[in-house]
Design brief:
Elements lengths: L5 H14 L16 H15 L20 H10 L13 H17 L6 E5 L2 H15 L4 E5 L5 H8 L4 E4 L9 H9 L3 E7 L11 H11 L2 E5 L15 H8 L6 E4 L12 E5 L35 H13 L7 H21 L4 E3 L9 E6 L4 H17 L5 E6 L17 E8 L9 H21 L3
Parallel strand pairs: 2-3, 2-4, 4-5, 5-6
Antiparallel strand pairs: 1-7, 6-7, 8-9, 9-11, 10-11
């Protein structure tokens, strides 16, 4: 693991925090009655158990959406845990509540919103639930519509909320089909459309600008699930034109979800939900006989479905955004642009290598790359993908697998691979660390070596 500056920095900050409370009478804590030696033994056991993990922190981990928190986020979170604040009410998190309000205001500002309602959540799932819950309150009984490539949580959430959910097909780049969406809208009773800006499978960006045009004709709320892709709003110059138009239009949505625990460099779990109309706060209104009387200022529990929430998450986010403001051209944006550049370079190399087939219709929209091995049949391509996945892992390169429609890839000119609605198993790489750009030669070397081994073994198989 790389050098960790957190312990030394945290020690000094802890001293400063303790100095804030020196006016209190001295007392003896019972927390360490088990003894230092016993605690040390348990922590040693924890360290060994945690070793049974993929190296998520390393550039050779290029599989799932796992990005290491920034050192300042880890330090600020640990510092806050000396108090363990609860941001449900100001009684439980006075300073951390203010820090949450300030941090969320900066995220909303990234989308051009000055007047809004928003807060942090424990996950993107909870954030999306709140957005669809509000949609259901505004248009009771009306349907939710999303792309077939939208996260499965939207269907699940809709079921929890007792709202009908309809999927519409995606095009060959994984984006919601506008033709299919309008066909669904003509059926009527649509209360909200979920537009995904950064799908989980491949980082596809739904055409939000075109969805907005349909809103003018059919009248529905637009919820943008930008849990993964939201921060790409900061680097429009690095995006292709369709994605650039979608992110430029994001401020016209009715609600937005973004996950700081993805590209925002935060520990799990830290989601964020934003509403363009602050008046939706009326749906959260409730009475509490014991929670909201210590301050006339807004308690975050008054605008959240969750009750207890980690104030430490807000402190970590606030600290990170103080160090790395969410500004176009700033260091945070530059790091994001490096991830995007790494994905484009990997895609370029894949397209230049006859052993691989990236998507037929264009380069990645964000920083997720998908491709499949060339093979005579879909079954053989899927088998090779799984074998390459395992062979890469043996070389300490960790990728991911995803199933996509075969028709989204180039077909062999000979016609030996027939068009079929069945999915094909593909390789997937999430290049969300800025270090991936510098490590791309190492990644490519391991990928190609693993592929050569797998294909050599395939040639030895009997017909």
């Amino acid at each position: 693991m790389p050098h960790d500056p957190v312990p030394g920095l945290l020690s000094r900050a802890t001293e400063l925090l303790e100095a804030e409370f020196t006016a209190l009478p001295a007392w003896e804590s019972t927390a360490d009655l088990a003894g230092t030696a016993a605690i040390e033994r348990v922590l040693e056991a924890v360290a060994h158990r945690l070793g049974d993990n993929y190296p998520y922190f390393h550039p050779l981990y290029a599989g799932q959406m796992l990005k290491p928190p920034h050192p300042v986020a880890r330090a600020a979170y640990a510092l806050a845990m000396n108090l363990n604040p609860n941001n449900h009410a100001r009684d439980g998190g006075r300073a951390s509540s203010e820090m949450e309000i300030e941090a969320v205001r900066e995220i909303a500002g990234m989308f051009g919103w000055k007047e809004f309602l928003g807060h942090l959540t424990s996950s993107g799932t909870l954030a999306n639930l709140e957005a669809l819950w509000v949609a259901g309150q505004i248009a009771p009984g009306r349907r939710i519509v999303g792309s077939e490539q939208a996260h499965y949580t939207h269907r699940r959430i809709s079921a929890v909320l007792k709202l009908d959910y309809a999927e519409v097909p995606a095009d060959s780049r994984g984006r919601m089909s506008i033709v299919a969406l309008e066909s669904e809208l003509r059926k009527g009773a649509v209360g909200a459309v979920v537009a995904t800006l950064g799908t989980t499978a491949m980082g596809a960006v739904d055409p939000l600008d075109e969805i907005l045009a349909l809103r003018e004709r059919y009248g529905f709320r637009i919820h943008v699930d930008a849990a993964y892709g939201g921060y790409f709003r900061l680097i429009p110059e690095s995006l292709d034109e369709p994605a650039r138009r979608a992110f430029a239009a994001i401020g016209q949505a009715d609600s937005i979800v973004v996950d700081p625990h993805k590209h925002g460099l935060q520990p799990y779990g830290c989601g964020c939900v934003l509403f363009r109309d602050p008046a939706v706060g009326r749906f959260y209104k409730h009475d509490s006989p014991y929670t909201y009387f210590t301050s006339k200022e807004l308690h975050l529990g008054e605008i959240s479905l969750e009750c207890s929430r980690a104030g430490a998450a807000a402190v970590a986010l606030w600290a990170t955004q103080k160090l790395l403001p969410l500004a176009p051209g700033g260091e945070f944006a530059q790091r994001l642009a490096r991830s995007r550049a790494a994905a484009l370079e990997l895609d370029r190399r894949l397209r230049g290598d006859g052993r691989f087939q990236p998507l037929a219709t264009g380069s990645p929209e964000l920083d997720i790359v998908v491709w499949k091995p060339r093979a005579q049949t879909a079954e053989e391509a899927s088998r090779r993908a799984r074998e390459i996945f395992a062979a890469c892992a043996r070389r300490d390169l960790h990728l991911a697998l995803v199933e996509l429609p075969l028709t989204w890839f180039h077909l062999e000119e000979s016609g030996s691979i027939a068009e079929t609605p069945r999915p094909v198993t593909c390789l997937r790489s999430v290049l969300m660390k800025p270090e991936h750009e510098a490590w791309l030669d190492q990644i490519w070397e391991r990928l190609t070596a693993a592929s050569m081994d797998v294909m050599a073994q395939a040639d030895k198989r009997p017909e």
